Amino acid sequence: MKSVKKLISFIGIFSLVFVILACGNKKSSEQKVQKQSNKSKVEQAQTESAAAPGEMGGKAPNFQLNNLQEKQVELKDFKGEVVLLNFWGIWCPPCKKEIPELIEIQKENKAKEFSIVSIALPRGPVSGIKDFVQKNNINYPVLVGQGKALKSIMEKYGGIRGVPTTFLIDNKGVIQHKWVGPRSKEQFMQEINKLIK
User: Fold this and answer.
1) Which of 103, 114, 161, 172 could form an S-S bond across to 109 if both were Cys, CB 3.0 to 4.6 Å?
2) What pLDDT is attached to residue 73?
3) Residue 122 in contact with residue 129, Cβ under 8 Å?
């Protein structure tokens, strides 16, 4: 009788130890699966955020163009600044409508690490752009280019399909916003204020 009780007691203890070990292993494997799931989510987020250059979330490609004084200007000249990069044309009514807003933004934020840089898409001689800039008192750099050089820049920025097209680039050189079509000062400043000091 004593041996039967011992055997039952032994089986009970053995069963209890087995259940405890099995639960521990299950919990450990669940934790391992959870860690792998979290790791894959982080990797997926990193992959999704690795946007191509010229696209939102990607690096703003550098470029070289002349300003209206025929001095070469590069995007990297504005390193460490927040840049509003505006593609436009003097032949484009929505672009002309937007320019007073851009002039105000530049004027009000010139003391901060912020610049507007514009690339004028020419139709006709550069002298027409110069006259327009002087007449409208544009207070930010206006760059001009021709042919393959200009086309290459437009392609690097995802292919400019219409103007105005404007990119907001943070102080690390990453494109944070893109607008196609004209915007108001308030619409621009809503995003700019998130980036400037």
Assistant:
1) 114
2) 98
3) yes
How many CB atoms are located within 10 Å of the residue 158 CB?
18
**55-98, pLDDT tens digit by residue?**
999 999 999 999 999 999 999 999 999 999 999 999 999 999 99
What is the spatial distance between Cα 60 and Cα 101, in angstroms, rounded to a whole number? 23
Q: Does 2 fall in a domain?
A: yes
Number of domains in the chain: 2
Both tokens of 54, joined, read 């010229």
150 with 184, same domain: the answer is yes
Q: Where are the alpha helices (DSSP H) in the chain?
A: 2-49, 93-109, 126-135, 147-156, 185-192
Using CA atoms, how far apart are residues 167 and 109, in angstroms rounded to an integer? Answer: 17
Does 24 share its domain with 68?
no
pTM: 0.75
Q: Which residues contact 155 (CB under 8 A, 6 or more apart)?
A: none
Measured CA to CA, the distance from residue 65 to residue 129 in angstroms comes to 15
Residues 1 and 34 in one domain: yes
Do 155 and 68 belong to one domain? yes
Per-residue confidence (pLDDT) for residue 36, from 0 to 100: 53
| Domain coverage including residue 158 | 64-192
Closest CA to 188 of 110, 81, 103, 79: 103
Length of the chain: 197
Same domain? For 92 and 186 the reply is: yes
